[in-house]
Design goal:
two-stranded antiparallel ribbon; 16 helices; two-stranded antiparallel sheet; nucleus; about 55% helix; 3 domains; mainly alpha; Nup186/Nup192/Nup205; about 375 residues; transport
């Protein structure tokens, strides 16, 4: 495991070590053994966790470093491998390796964990801090901060990891509480939606994991009566947004209406407001909710008119006003028809007839 701590000068060994860990920890017995091994002494516990944190905190790869076809250097691959390892480990029984690396106290009830910023009350920097910092840096990069860059695939896995912690009944409360203390992490990231980039699939997945996490936060804050925080999230999702574009207006030219005065030094800065639709409506445009038409099968033994008559007999109205087909009744009618022709049809014809009957059973008609 010490190879994980050698990431600065032996990154290939670090990547292999994380990959081996991911394979061996699929076994619950080995996984439980590793938890005890990693936390056997305070010095080993700090050393190993610090090694993982350093890997996640490492800067983007050297531009001179060789990259693969996805534009990934060795350090990006290490980050991705660690996030996969954490994602796999968090599903094991508590306490697990992911809980230890993320900063949970494995000797106490993890539900009662209280996270602090690194250094506060001697709290160490953990993988959870690194993941949050990684996601914050990605938001900065989207806003034009040239000091930061990110790989969409790594950020996608980071958002997924955060969602897994918030969806887990053992960890959701301490993690969401800590996210609120991080300058309202979810509010800040939600305000940056929708994401845009060249890797459209990854960007959509990032938004999906973030919105799922926000949904959990909405439910929890409503249950805990955290009205101010709940109000901020709801307003951010449902209220129309106003963007301000700063423009310079020449007041002297505006007052006099003369073009020759437009170069006068008396200028003032104003902002031009532009109304934008609610974020929730904007996000709906990313979802394809169109309904594809049901193709009409080509029948050999049934005529289309007879099929439509049978379907109309099997229609049932539901409370929403839709009409659905009772597939069980349709199946009985078709099977009765099959039994009626068995005496005159050949074995091949009966098989084809049965196939068309099965196709009919999969038809769902909506009006």
């Amino acid at each position: 495991m010490r190879y994980v701590t050698y990431n600065s000068w032996l990154p290939e060994h670090t990547l292999c070590a994380v990959g081996i860990l991911q394979v061996v920890t699929t076994s619950p017995s080995i996984h439980n053994h590793l938890v005890g091994l990693f936390t056997s002494t305070p010095s080993i516990s700090v050393l190993i966790r610090h090694g993982f944190v350093e890997c996640l905190d490492s800067e983007q790869d050297d531009p001179m470093e060789e990259e693969d076809e996805d534009g990934f250097g060795i350090h990006c691959h290490i980050k991705e491998a660690i996030l996969k390892f954490l994602q796999q480990s968090v599903s094991h029984s508590a306490p697990n390796v992911a809980h230890y690396l993320l900063g949970f106290d494995t000797k106490k009830d993890i539900k009662k964990m209280v996270f602090q910023q690194p250094g506060v009350q001697e709290f160490p920097r953990t993988c959870l801090h690194s993941i949050i910092n990684m996601l914050d840096n990605s938001i900065g990069a989207r806003s034009g901060d040239l000091r930061h860059s990110f790989k969409p695939r790594v950020i996608e896995k980071a958002y997924c990891m955060l969602y897994s912690l918030c969806a887990d009944t053992r960890t959701y409360e301490p993690v969401l509480r800590f996210l609120r203390s991080c300058n309202d992490f979810l509010v800040r990231h939600l305000a940056c939606l929708p994401f845009s980039g060249t890797n459209r699939v990854s960007e959509l997945n990032q938004m999906s994991w973030l919105l799922k996490t926000v949904a959990i936060e909405l439910r929890l804050t409503s249950m805990k009566c955290l009205h101010s925080h709940l109000k901020r999230l709801v307003e951010l999702l449902t209220q129309e947004q106003v963007s301000h574009e700063h423009v310079i207006i020449d007041e002297s030219a505006q007052l006099l209406g003369l073009s020759e005065y437009r170069n006068q030094p008396f200028r003032s800065h104003h902002s031009r407001s532009e109304q934008k639709e609610a974020l929730l409506l904007t996000l709906l445009s990313f979802a394809n909710i169109s309904e594809l038409p049901v193709p009409i099968p080509q029948w050999e033994f049934f005529s289309q008119s007879q099929i439509e008559q049978v379907l109309s007999k099997c229609e049932r109205s539901v409370s929403t006003g839709l009409k659905l087909v009772d597939v069980k009744q349709l199946h009985h009618i078709l099977m009765d028809e099959l039994f009626a022709v068995q005496s005159t049809a050949t074995a091949v014809q009966r098989q084809l007839f049965l196939q068309e009957t099965e196709v009919s059973n999969h038809i769902h008609v909506y009006h």
